[in-house]
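RECORD TYPE: inverse folding
INPUT: structure tokens
STRUCTURE:
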């Protein structure tokens, strides 16, 4: 397969995803939800739209233009995929195959249904891909490794895969910046960054920085329509549990009936909890952001006013060149 063949196949995959009917998306979601209750129809549809956008021809060609992929010597690249949100491993799937390497993917049991559906659709479009990847349980013969997991599993990955070329990703989360001057629409858009995928993704905002004395009344009001999130029993169980812990321990917090807001120096908040910290000046804010940059996936602010941030509502819409942990996967694959 030539690079042009690979581009055309993935572009067609994106077009087919866009053409999925509501009934077809519902079927995909039901199959996925049977294995992972967090994968409901709304979130699966959102993830499919994101992948379809990522695969638009103009974006794919712009993405791969800087790389020299016609001269890659194919290697067996093992990928350990996460399963926290629908099809979260797709970007690695795309990167390895687009670069011309042979993919050995170890899927998460939480997200094997959707990834296999995408792979099957790709092979239907371009049968030659059938010989370019396989789903495996062990990665013993992989010549290079890309692994995504927690800080704990990262130590395991380092131990077993450290002698091979590798990218090993650890825990990351995203942060939001509030000044108190945001409009209701801005705050509602921030709610998308917080609540999409029930807060399970590394691009979900789990902490916000606010000026001293900030109150969350306007934020709660702008996101009251999201109270239906409690209809998911797992989310409500998390909300009830975390609320009881805060109450028993007499920890000061805000509560709007479906989300808890707590001041904390920590970055990664439990499901249904949003952490916040305060800043006294722009220089203080930058200092605090810089202190946690190694734990931060992305930063959001109203209309992207803060340098290095993206607008509220766009955290869950990464482009194909937005690499996890800021590590250029394609540059890594090109050099193998």
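DESIGNED SEQUENCE:
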């Amino acid at each position: 397969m030539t690079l042009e063949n690979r581009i055309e196949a993935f572009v067609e995959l994106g077009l087919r995803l866009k053409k999925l009917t509501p009934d077809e998306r519902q079927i995909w979601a039901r199959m996925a939800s049977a294995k992972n209750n967090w994968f409901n129809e709304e979130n699966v549809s959102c993830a499919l739209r994101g992948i379809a956008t990522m695969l638009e021809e103009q974006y794919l060609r712009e993405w791969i233009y800087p790389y020299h992929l016609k001269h890659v010597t194919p290697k067996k690249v093992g990928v350990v995929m996460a399963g926290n949100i629908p099809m979260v491993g797709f970007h690695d799937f795309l990167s390895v195959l687009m670069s011309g390497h042979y993919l050995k993917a170890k899927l998460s049991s939480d997200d094997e249904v959707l990834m296999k559906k995408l792979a099957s659709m790709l092979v239907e479009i371009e049968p030659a891909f059938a010989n370019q990847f396989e789903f495996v349980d062990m990665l013993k013969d992989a010549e290079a490794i890309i692994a995504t997991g927690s800080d704990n599993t990262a130590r395991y990955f380092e131990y077993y895969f450290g002698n091979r070329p590798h990218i090993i990703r650890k825990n990351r989360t995203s942060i939001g910046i509030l000044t108190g001057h945001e409009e209701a629409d801005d705050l509602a858009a921030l709610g998308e960054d917080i609540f999409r995928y029930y807060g399970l993704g590394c691009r979900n905002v789990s902490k916000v920085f606010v000026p001293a004395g900030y109150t969350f009344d306007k934020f709660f009001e702008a996101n009251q329509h999201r109270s239906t999130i409690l209809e998911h029993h797992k989310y409500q169980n998390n909300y009830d549990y975390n609320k009881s812990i805060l109450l028993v321990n007499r920890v000061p917090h805000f509560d709007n009936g479906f989300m808890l807001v707590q001041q904390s120096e920590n970055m990664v908040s439990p499901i249904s909890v949003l952490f916040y910290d305060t800043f006294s000046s722009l220089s203080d804010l930058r200092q605090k952001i810089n202190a946690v940059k190694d734990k931060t996936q992305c930063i959001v602010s109203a209309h992207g006013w803060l340098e290095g941030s993206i607008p509220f509502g766009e955290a869950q819409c990464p482009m194909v060149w937005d690499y996890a942990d800021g590590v250029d996967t394609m540059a890594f694959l090109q050099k193998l």
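NOTES: The chain has a mean pLDDT of 95.
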